[in-house]
Amino acid sequence: MTIDGMNKEEHMEAAQAKPVHDTIAPQRAERKQLRVRLFHRIEQACQLWCVFGGIILVVAVGIILASILGRFLAGLGIGPGSIVGDNELMEAACVIAAFAFLPWCQLKRGHVAVDILVARLGPRAGLLASAISDMGMLAVAVLIAWRLFANLLEKHAYGETTMLLDIPTSLIYALSFVGCIFFVLACFVTLANNLGALTTRPRYKNIMRSN
Fold first, then answer.
1. Global pTM?
2. Which of 10, 20, 43, 151 has CB atoms 3.0–4.6 Å from 6's, for a disulfide?
3. Is 122 a residue whose pLDDT tops 90?
């Protein structure tokens, strides 16, 4: 028995089948939501690590100020003198803080940029220039992370420490490496956002002019 030229089983399958676009659209929306949540987690991690770097830098500045004050009081005969290894602490803090600030700076577009020419070429050209710069930044970040990790393993193998405080230099490299990994992730996020904006077709509104 047939129904409109189809047998009963084919008719039931056709009735139950859904259009392709009805299944693709939810999948795309789900992937987009997953990507947004992932990028948001990366941004939160970069922000927390930036705060950590700021705390490290503030503590180091406090130590330097206390060392200067102690040296001044020692000159008056009433102080213990400067703090031993204050320069080592400041150098280590500056290195760790610099790598901690890079990811957040990349996400917030805080790097110095000269876009006088690109600004005149329109928004699409600006996105293309940003994507190219993000590619270059990502390549540099990966290169730095690779060299940091190689030096981290070398310093750890030799057990190298600082001269006065005997701080393992591998610890400084490890904290810097964590910041550099976040820097790589931040470059990936900004590059993905720019490429996504480039591949999205611009939508133009029809403008009705009244006579």
1. 0.77
2. 10
3. no
